[in-house]
Design a protein that fits this description.
The complex is a heterodimer of chains A (about 325) and B (about 325). Chain A has about 325 residues and is mainly α. Chain A has helices at about 1-10, 10-25, 35-60, 65-80, 95-120, 125-145, 155-160, 170-185, 190-200, 200-205, 210-235, 245-255, 270-290, 295-315; strands spanning about 150, 160-165, 165, 240. Chain B has helices at about 1-15, 15-30, 40-65, 70-90, 90-115, 120-140, 170-185, 190-200, 200-205, 210-235, 245-260, 270-290, 295-315, and strands spanning about 145, 160-165, 165, 240. In chain B, a hairpin with a 2-residue loop joins strand 2 and strand 3.
């Protein structure tokens, strides 16, 4: 019992999830329903996929503001390229070059961000702030401000398909979560991720090549953001150039709610799952209760600050007190 | 002798790099486009830059003090909606007063959370960004607002009028910039801001009440955003409820571009003014050359990273990052 309490005090977000889960179950007859739980999983999968990668980057002590642009670019690429005339006779195989191009774009932009952080030593916040504007510019240049519609129906069917009892997109998200969790907790790369974020100088002295290391994490994030863009496009069967705007803010909110520190060195995938689920359940539950979407914004903002406040009260005893 | 002269030349080049880039931009654009260096065009650039500029003045203080303010974008939305909506209900003077008070209140909340409760400024203002956007939408009920008697109200003076032939918004920007420069460079308060950002611990030990300084910087930042909202509301005579979306990062780009360090403790109002003007002239110049509006984002991407890279490269004495 004591251990459970201590775990909750370090991960207050799961207590919060329990609270809103019970609340919505009692308050709305449609909430506690297997179909609805599947909905929540699908709705959170987009933000969730990006949040997985963002967790790695933030444990590194970096941040990435450019993920929204990558989402839009990969969505536009995958929807546009499958309609190219070159691939017209390919049947469903026309999805292969489209998906490959979208993922490649995500990986390349992640690598570019990582490379700039590595070579120039400019803070990741500034590098990706520039990239956020620039990649959005790329999207507009590529799409000429047009929306695209998916030419191949198999692509849009994928977004609403099931594997066994579960929606495919939820399975994709859960598999990715397992993989990243494994990477972070069981591999050398994962251990290095904590080491670099915890004490950069010590990591250098221990022989970790932190430049390439951080670049790998940016690449993983770019890949996952591109994947998220494709899942979004396949749900809509279309893409718009403004897709993914504000996603960086939602994702960072989710990761921070999950207990990852902006200063680096601490955090885990279980926490991030909690952060993502909290946002998903809150949005879904309030939607079912027909509360306008605006209130979710206010509640999320307040919760974000409250979690930070709680964390300070529970886990940072001995710090200087309040003084004006 | 010659070597020394070369050395001082490089030093000037690196220290004044952003100014030189600015001059190069101006010369380049005026050679390529004959409409660029006309009084009308220059005035247009200044008018457009005034809103971002006024906001950037306040954010500069926050950044020098070692914090971030991401809430200014949605605060701009809230303030603009307030001043426009209240204009018809309680008259211009009361509307302006209420708007500025509301902005100051938001600034005070930011300042107390960051300065007194010592929470991370990025997350606090991220939470406030979301919460204030939600409040704005709740206030307007999702509607846009506008002013009925647009042609007769004296409220038009801020965004459309001129005093002694100078457009009022430029005048406001210039006066505010001069006042802020004096406050920051020539008063004890200004020195406390630099000290709190440069070395918080040392500042506290030398008797500076850091919490108060942080609180003041956030309130000044919010006040500046309130002023920007009055200019914007008066220019448009109406407001969308998300008009400020994305402004927080544009404003931050301008501050960074000028050369104010995100680490705190260095920077100046003059630098920020240059940063704002560079952003304005890039936008205007590229449009005059016939590029689509989104091309400026690509150019800004390159310019931001180059500017910060050259700045820190000059400080560490080598081009590439020291870490492996």
């Amino acid at each position: 019992m004591n251990r459970t309490l201590r775990w909750l005090s370090r991960n207050p977000i799961w207590g919060f999830i329990l609270l809103i889960f019970v609340f919505f179950s009692l308050a709305n007859p449609f909430f506690f329903d297997l179909q609805n739980f599947e909905n929540i999983l699908v709705q959170t999968s987009t933000i969730g996929l990006i949040a997985l990668g963002m967790t790695l980057v933030m444990i590194n002590g970096n941040i990435d503001l450019s993920v929204g642009g990558i989402v839009a670019l990969s969505a536009s690429l995958v929807v546009d390229i499958q309609g190219w005339e070159v691939f017209a006779g390919w049947g469903d195989w026309q999805l292969v070059p489209a998906v490959a191009a979208a993922l490649l774009a995500g990986v390349a932009l992640g690598a570019l961000n990582g490379l700039i952080v590595w070579w120039t030593g400019v803070d990741a916040f500034i590098v990706t702030l520039g990239a956020m504007l620039g990649i959005r510019g790329l999207v507009f240049v590529y799409t000429k401000e047009q929306s695209f519609y998916a030419a191949n129906f198999a692509f849009s069917d994928f977004g609403s398909s099931n594997i066994g009892p579960l929606p495919t997109l939820a399975v994709v998200f859960l598999v990715c979560a397992l993989l990243v969790h494994w990477l972070l907790s069981q591999t050398v790369h994962g251990r290095n991720t904590y080491a670099v974020g915890g004490n950069r100088q010590a990591a250098v002295n221990a022989g970790i090549r932190i430049g390439p290391h951080m670049m790998v994490n940016f690449i993983i994030l770019g890949f996952l953001a591109a994947l998220a863009g494709m899942t979004l496009a396949s749900q809509m069967g279309a893409s718009t150039p403004t897709l993914g705007q504000d996603y960086e803010l939602w994702v960072i909110t989710a990761v921070v709610l999950g207990g990852t520190k902006l200063t680096g060195g601490a955090g885990n995938i279980v926490g991030t799952l909690g952060g993502v689920l909290a946002i998903g359940i809150l949005r879904n539950g309030m939607n079912l209760m027909q509360v306008p979407a605006f209130y979710v914004l206010v509640i999320l903002g307040v919760i974000l600050i409250a979690v930070l406040f709680l964390d300070r009260q529970l886990n940072r005893k001995g710090q200087e007190g309040y003084r004006l | 002798m010659a070597e020394e002269r070369l050395k001082s030349a490089t030093r000037i080049l690196t220290q004044r790099g952003i100014l030189i880039a600015f001059i190069l931009f101006m010369v380049g654009f005026s050679v390529v486009s004959d409409r660029f260096m006309t009084p009308d065009n220059l005035q247009a650039v200044f008018r457009q830059a005034a809103i971002i500029g006024v906001m950037a003045l306040g954010v500069t203080l926050v950044v020098i003090c070692g914090n971030l303010d991401l809430s200014v974008g949605s605060l701009l939305s809230l303030s603009t909606v307030l001043v426009v909506d209240l204009h018809d209900k309680i008259g211009p003077i009361s509307a302006i007063a209420v708007t500025l008070l509301a902005a100051l209140a938001v600034g005070a909340v930011n300042g107390l959370l960051v300065g007194v409760a010592r929470l991370n400024s990025l997350i606090v203002t991220l939470g406030m960004l979301s919460a204030i956007q939600g409040l704005t939408l709740i206030y307007t009920g999702g509607q846009n607002v506008d002013i009925q008697n647009q042609d007769t109200t004296w409220f038009a003076i801020f965004g459309r009028g001129a005093i002694l032939g100078v457009p009022t918004q430029i005048l406001i920007f210039v006066v505010l910039a001069v006042v802020m420069h004096v406050v920051l460079a020539h008063t004890p308060f200004g020195r406390r801001v630099y000290a709190s950002g440069g070395n918080p611990t040392a500042a506290v030990f030398s008797g500076i009440r850091r919490g108060r300084v942080v609180l003041a910087t956030y309130m000044i930042s919010a006040f500046c955003t309130g002023i920007a909202a009055i200019i914007l509301g008066s220019r448009v005579m109406g407001s969308q409820n998300n008009v400020g979306q994305g402004y927080e990062l544009l404003v931050l780009s301008a501050v960074i571009l000028g050369g104010t360090s995100l680490l705190g403790g260095s920077g100046s109002i003059a630098k920020t003014v240059i940063g704002v003007l560079i952003l304005g002239f890039i936008q205007n110049g590229l449009l005059l050359l016939g590029f689509a509006y989104y091309v400026q984002w690509l150019v800004t991407w390159v310019v931001i990273i180059l500017a910060v890279w050259l700045d820190i490269a000059a400080k560490r004495g080598r081009m590439f990052s020291p870490f492996a």
